[in-house]
Structure formats: structure tokens, C-alpha cells
Specification:
Strand content: under 5%
Strand order of the largest sheet: 1-2
Distance between the termini: 38 Å
Radius of gyration: 26 Å
Number of helices: 12
Largest sheet: 2 strands, antiparallel
Helix content: 55-70%
């Protein structure tokens, strides 16, 4: 499905917010007029007109979500397909719990599910090649997803397919198979450090948090390769638990 440009997305968001605000102001205004003693018939008529417009808008939204949307045929929880407030509840009110709720939805509905009015979520390794095979397709990034990073100038946040491809080409060779093979000595040295750290703790009864130690391994490799600035997280006490603490507090990894 073609995605909106950043400018069009912003315009749509503003218009949506304006509609909600206008409706709310309308109801508040009618309540004030009632208090001020204006003609009840006029107030009733205005209220009925405003409520009717809101009802038609709601019905149109329901029809789009359940019938005319390009993703309406995919399994879902109806409340999730109808409104983003369901996702808002788990991510904001419950503090980032929606990823775990999505996992439960996959168990209930299968590998491809609808998680909100506009998004699908895929949990099927066999489908990944087709899903990410965009070299021959003009696939634009979803604007809402790109907007989460705060700038459309970054490669990861570029919406337009052609522009993203151009930006990606600047560093794509860094992660080619040949480049990764040439990285083997660096990877081996970091793995050796990991082995030494685990060997030191053998027989001591000291528990090792595998999430922390493998996160440290990954960080040491990436920071050295991309920035030539290895932080040697594997040599830190507890393998740099501050990073794991950040993820735990964000509820992106289990405690």
C-alpha cells in the first residue's frame, strides 16, 4: 500500500486533531449556551446535528477498518483493528507491554496478524525473504514508523524508496558478505574475550546473565567496526549492566 509523504502525513494528522478538537469545542459550546439560557430548540437541533456528523464519521471509520481497508481480511482482535487506543493502552498506560500482547495475538490468530487499523505484524521466518525483498519493488517506508526517529534525513527514516536506496548505497558495502568475512579476526578476538570471561567464572558459582554478556559481545564488535572505539564492555563489571538496566526499565527485555 502506498504511503503518504511526510508533508501529507503531517497535514492529515493536523486535520484529524482539528476534527476532534472542533467536535469537542462544539459540545462544550452547546453546554455553555444551555447554561446561559439560549433557546433550547436551537441547542437541541445543534446537538443533534453535531452528534449526527460524529456518528457518520464513526460509521465511516468502522466501515473502513472492517471492510474497505487493504488489510481488513487479516485476523485480528476487533478492538485493535478499530482503534489505536488499544495499542496506546498497552504501550503508554501499561508501559511498553504491547510487544508481549502481540506475541499472545500470534499464538491465538497465527503468523500474520493485524495489530492496529493500519499495520500488520509478521512472525514467520519463511515470509521474511518476501517481506524484505524490496530491491525489485518500489516500497516506501510507512510514514508513521519513520517519524518515530524524529528526522526524515536519516537513512533509516527515509520514506521515499529511491532516496532510501541512494542513501543506503553509501555504506551498503560495509555489510556485504565479503566485508563481514574480512571482519572475522575482530569477531574472533571479541569471542576470545568472551570465552576468557566465562572461563574465569567457571567453578566459582557466580551466575552469568546471558542477556548481558551477549549484549556486551554485540556492542564490542559493532562499536569497534563502525566507530573504531571499542568500549570493552565485556571487561566491565557485570558486563556493563547499565545497558541491560535501560532495556529492563523500558520493558524490552525480561527481568
Amino acid at each position: 500500500m502506498a504511503q503518504d509523504s511526510p508533508r501529507r502525513y503531517i497535514v492529515k494528522s493536523v486535520l484529524s486533531a482539528a476534527r476532534t478538537a472542533t467536535s469537542l469545542i462544539g459540545y462544550i459550546s452547546l453546554a455553555c449556551l444551555w447554561k446561559l439560557g439560549y433557546d433550547p430548540k436551537l441547542i437541541y437541533f445543534s446537538f443533534a446535528l453535531l452528534a449526527g456528523m460524529d456518528t457518520l464519521s464513526l460509521c465511516a471509520h468502522v466501515y473502513f477498518c472492517f471492510y474497505s481497508s487493504p488489510i481488513a481480511r487479516f485476523p485480528d482482535r476487533k478492538i485493535a483493528a478499530l482503534t489505536l487506543w488499544y495499542e496506546f493502552y498497552y504501550d503508554v498506560i501499561k508501559g511498553g507491554e504491547y510487544i508481549w500482547e502481540i506475541e499472545k495475538m500470534h499464538e491465538q490468530y497465527g503468523p500474520i496478524i493485524r495489530i492496529n487499523p493500519y499495520e500488520l505484524h509478521v512472525s514467520d521466518p519463511q515470509f521474511l525473504k518476501q517481506l524484505y525483498s524490496s530491491s525489485t519493488k518500489n516500497v516506501e517506508k510507512w510514514t508513521w514508523s519513520a517519524a518515530q526517529f524524529g528526522s526524515y534525513d536519516m537513512t533509516s527514516s527515509t520514506v521515499q524508496h529511491g532516496l532510501h536506496k541512494l542513501r543506503r548505497q553509501a555504506y551498503s558495502n560495509l555489510f556485504s558478505k565479503q566485508s563481514i568475512r574480512s571482519l572475522e579476526p575482530l569477531i574472533q578476538s571479541v569471542v576470545d574475550t568472551l570465552y576468557d570471561q566465562m572461563e574465569k567464572r567457571r567453578g566459582t558459582g557466580e551466575p552469568i546473565h546471558l542477556g548481558q554478556i551477549y549484549a556486551a559481545l554485540t556492542q564490542d564488535i559493532i562499536t569497534e567496526y563502525c566507530f573504531a572505539n571499542n568500549k570493552n564492555t565485556l571487561l566491565m563489571p557485570g558486563f556493563g549492566p547499565s545497558y541491560d538496566t535501560i532495556l529492563t526499565k523500558a520493558k524490552l527485555c525480561p527481568t
